[in-house]
Design brief:
Layout: H1 2-10, H2 13-20, H3 24-38, E1 43-45, E2 50-52, H4 54-79, E3 86-92, H5 94-111, E4 115-121, H6 128-131, E5 135-139, E6 147-155, E7 157-161, H7 163-169, E8 183-186, E9 194-199, E10 202-207, E11 212-214, H8 217-225, E12 230-234, H9 235-244, E13 248-249, E14 255-256, E15 260-267, H10 274-287, H11 293-296
Parallel strand pairs: 3-4, 3-5, 8-11, 8-12
Antiparallel strand pairs: 1-2, 5-15, 6-15, 7-12, 7-13, 9-10, 9-14
Helix pairs in contact: 1-2, 2-3
Length: 310
């Protein structure tokens, strides 16, 4: 089963055989034996790449779930015997690292003082296998099927502005009124100029216009603090500003649709290392309940319920 899954994820028998410490011919025979037992062809074999058949796609999804359960069980047993230690290489997105992850790190090292963290803070696409990264933390659905994704939390997005900007230009009273305002965009985000809201009439998508697009959320945050315009950012980035009043929510009665999933990504089997398993558990424990949410809830609105009135 594992030979079948890794052959697809790595694109061929040779790469999978190297990882599993087998010869390509031995691994190919394992997959052929599996196909014979199931009496169905699972793979389309070409000289360039392996691709799953329609039946192979169905079997692949089920195999991944089974293997993930097995890995979790083995990891749980292994962690009870060995203390986390050694070098841990991580790559974390700028906004999450700056506003949430780095401030939480002292608690991790109080528990695991023998771990040495090598942290890169950036938003680029990384090749975890090639760069030998243990854990990558990113918002959005994982695009790389060769790594395992563990969901940390769901991140709400918040539309906000400075009090000075709203004093000069007025606060929009409906999503459509955003069209008359200067909005700031974060480059690299999916459909950055299409802001979706939950309204009493249903989901409403607004095509936003603006003068500036920046590839760094903290630079966008500086612009909005200075009163340059209205922005939509991940809630964990603006939570402290909302609490202090340097920024205020815009359209608080309209919930931003489609929260973004935050994932910890790690190479297949890497979570068996106690230091990797410890960090994965720490991320979920620390952020699954979105601790920034209580800070950012507008006055009189529960942080658990912020959708538009019915």
């Amino acid at each position: 089963m594992e030979a079948f899954v890794r052959s697809i994820e790595l694109g061929g028998f040779s790469a999978a055989a190297r990882e599993l410490k087998l010869t390509p011919s031995a691994l190919s025979k394992l997959v052929s034996r599996l196909e014979g037992a199931l009496k169905v062809r699972l793979l389309n074999r070409t000289t360039r790449k392996l691709t799953p058949t329609a039946e192979g796609e169905l079997f692949l999804a089920r195999c991944r779930r089974i293997l993930a359960e097995m890995e979790d069980a083995e990891s749980e047993v292994g962690r009870s015997r060995e203390r986390p230690r050694g070098k841990l290489r991580m790559n974390v997105g700028v906004g999450f690292a700056t506003h949430q992850f780095v401030p939480a790190l002292p608690r991790f090292f109080e528990r695991y003082p023998e771990v040495q963290l090598e942290l890169a803070v950036e938003d680029r696409v990384v090749d975890m296998q090639k760069e030998n990264i243990d854990i990558t933390v990113r918002a959005g659905p994982p695009a790389d099927l060769s790594v395992v994704a563990r969901k940390i939390c769901e991140v709400e997005r918040v539309v906000c502005a400075s009090p000075a900007y709203l004093a000069r230009h007025g606060a929009p009273r409906s999503p459509d009124e955003l069209l008359r305002h200067n909005c700031i965009f974060v480059a690299g985000t999916f459909a950055r100029n299409q802001w979706a809201f939950e309204t009493p009439a249903g989901r409403r998508v607004i095509e936003i216009g603006g003068a500036v697009t920046v590839n760094n959320a903290d630079c966008v945050l500086q612009l909005v603090r200075m009163g340059f315009g209205i922005v939509r950012l991940n809630e964990f980035i603006v939570a402290d500003d909302l609490r202090r009043g340097t920024l205020v929510r815009v359209l608080p009665e309209f919930h931003c649709a489609e929260p973004v999933p935050m994932h910890a990504l790690y190479p297949h089997m890497r979570h068996r290392l106690p230091r990797v398993a410890a960090m994965l558990d720490f991320l979920v424990e620390s952020f699954a309940h979105a601790p920034w949410r209580a800070k950012s809830a507008p006055a009189g609105v529960s942080p658990r319920r912020r959708s538009a009135p019915r």
